[in-house]
Amino acid sequence: METTLTINQLSRRSGVAASALRYYEERGLIQSERRGSGHRRFTRATLRRLAFIVFAQRLGMSLAEIGAELEKLPTDHVPKGADWSLLSGPWSARIDERIAELERLKTGLAQCISCGCLSLEFCRLVNPHDKAGALGPGPHYWLGDKSSND
Amino acid sequence: METTLTINQLSRRSGVAASALRYYEERGLIQSERRGSGHRRFTRATLRRLAFIVFAQRLGMSLAEIGAELEKLPTDHVPKGADWSLLSGPWSARIDERIAELERLKTGLAQCISCGCLSLEFCRLVNPHDKAGALGPGPHYWLGDKSSND
DNA sequence: CTACAAGTTCAAGTAAACTTGAAGTCAAGA
DNA sequence: TCTTGACTTCAAGTTTACTTGAACTTGTAG
Description:
The structure is a homodimer of 150-residue chains. By secondary structure, the first copy, chain A, is mainly alpha-helical.
């Protein structure tokens, strides 16, 4: 039994389309060795890397951000539990923040939207610490105007 | 004092770019009256509608989905608290689901990814009830292959 | 040896959610 | 009246994350 995987094997095992895998490789998120013919071979460790990528996407991260995170993994050996754990601390915090925001939204939905008090106040709900920024597509900046005098 | 808002006034108050407001109007998410000149005038109620739109986007909904939700509001009068409340029930549930997923992800980050047990198992974390589907961009289907015999 | 499945590259297409630019019209203060 | 600044439309461009198709090569089972 071979210890490496072809692109379609990896695709089947991970659920990520082969075209996406090629794309990820092109973006530097995963790596492969090439056979003489040019065919890719992936190590099984790539499965974990992919799990992390999918995971992070569900958290709303862009591939660019994910790539930056993955660069924190050591390159001198195959990353193991301890290496992944290094990432997981900040990530738990990240998830907690997101959960906290959702809780605020939920409260706001009940109180603020339904009662009719709503206008600019809503911004504090969505983004209480004024860090409008790279939040993906969509309007990025309730609270964008600091000196609102109208 | 005018009771209606120009597009730039609405933009400043909502934090949503004027170009985005035109786009939303084109998509039917908001409405405006037109002056003889063709200039748009928005009612203040539009602010609440916008708040809802931004809110929903933060929950990861597409404009199409948001539009569908907004259609549930009555058109025979300006929606008030009670009307918005009608939407808020299902929405709380929606938020709760999302929070639950994040909790699962958090657990999984600690246990599954970092310990090394990971591969296909991860799917159950991301999508425990096998409803891979329209989850936005990204690989949609850990668990996409029911009959994995390799 | 011959199919045919599986692999390759590269360019172009897609979808969502906007933004930008051009070219022109309208409104308001000095 | 003149001159900005705000507004209009419409077409085209942008970004992210891929997918699709064409044209071609490799690998393998019979």
